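Hey all, quick one. A colleague (J.T.) asked me to put the zinc ion job into the tracker so the inputs and the structure tokens live in one place instead of scattered across chat threads. No bug as far as I know, just bookkeeping. Sequence used:
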Amino acid sequence: MSDKMLIEKKKIENCLKKLFPLCRSITGNANRKTLRVLSDITPIRIIEYKSGTEVYDWKIPKEWNINDAWIKDETGKKIVDFKISNLHVVSYSIPVHKKIKLRDLKKHIHYHDKISRAIPYRTTYYKRNWGFCVTKKEYDKIFKNIPSLEYEVCIDSTFLSNGSLTVGEVLIPGLSKKEFLISTYICHPSMANDNLSGMILTAFLAKEIKKLKNRFYSYRIIWVPETIGAIAYCYHNEKRMKLIDNGLVVSNVGGKGKFGYKESFDKENSLNLTIKNVFKKKKIQFIKYPFDINGSDERQYSSSIFKINTPIITKDKFYEYPYYHTSLDDLNFVKASNIHKSLKLYLDVIKANEKEIIYVNKKSCEPLLSKYNLYPSLGGSHIPKKKEIDQTDVILWLCNLSDGKTTITQIEKKLGLSKKYLVSMSEMLVKKGILKKIK
Ligand code: ZN
């Protein structure tokens, strides 16, 4: 392993250790601190959107912060402690400090129904409520006691109506003003794959993209709380976001399991093919997940107003691995070396996407081929063959498919002709003034 790789892994490891304990949520100081720590990798602009702001159909909630939380049994002994794991508290719990009978406490306690040693991750963002999460073992131990016993619960949390929701942004200019979006989410507390791995990878990816010479695309790279943060960002950047065609959502990239990729809403979109070709070229086995309306912030970016194609490359995809949304998604499950592997893969996709060749037809409708000496002079002599494709057909296809978005790789796949030949034909059409090279 090269020295550079070792140093990078060490840096990823340090980030994991520093950021894992923070109690992130959709708002709050831990999100700001997370972005500040990530800014050590590459400078990130931190933006605040005020609580109470209406963003489309949603409203930015009051800012939530938490200092401490615990449950004490009838002897005064702490039996659940936020300081041991922040997953013990339902995120966005309202403050509470009172004595409560065990039978009444029951409806505020949650456990994982499949893994008895895991603390589940639960939230109550939009309903004023409070709760604790424990392992099934802890749950059974608590509720084997007499239901009339009195326990003491405390959640020391605060809600700020003059607070804000925090997002991070890095804008990297390219030769073209055309932007490529990279988005990841920062709202999950102590879970390493979902999505500490993604926020760290994105910071390193931003750093690497800045180093790419002669990059065509401009890059808009954002760290947002999932759903509400992505919606708030879209709302505040609507004009620019509407102009973006493609991007990537970075999520769950550090697990032990297989690589996977979730297709964007338009499976014919060029980026899906680019990703598949990168996997093939690197001989990496992967699981393909078709687009689904459940998932991460691709739900917002693919909505009708924006229609941005954002596939996701994962290493142990959300919903799929057993430790998903539990305390076992920890630093034993996620290793810096896996994040590093995913980082290289993401960077290869970015580089491959940069290299894709795209032309646009300058003529409206078909060009008059005879004007350019491109048509058999005797009209009626060009009869399309059923099986093979002749040069006239290739020209017509190139004019038809070159829409400023379709890549030569896609045309290669469609026509079954070599990339080299298609590029040489396209360049000939450029010389004739029919096509224009976009990139
Ligand atoms: Zn999640």
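Adding what we noticed when we looked at it: The pocket of zinc ion is lined by residues 188, 194, 318, 325 (CB under 6 Å). The mean pLDDT is 95.
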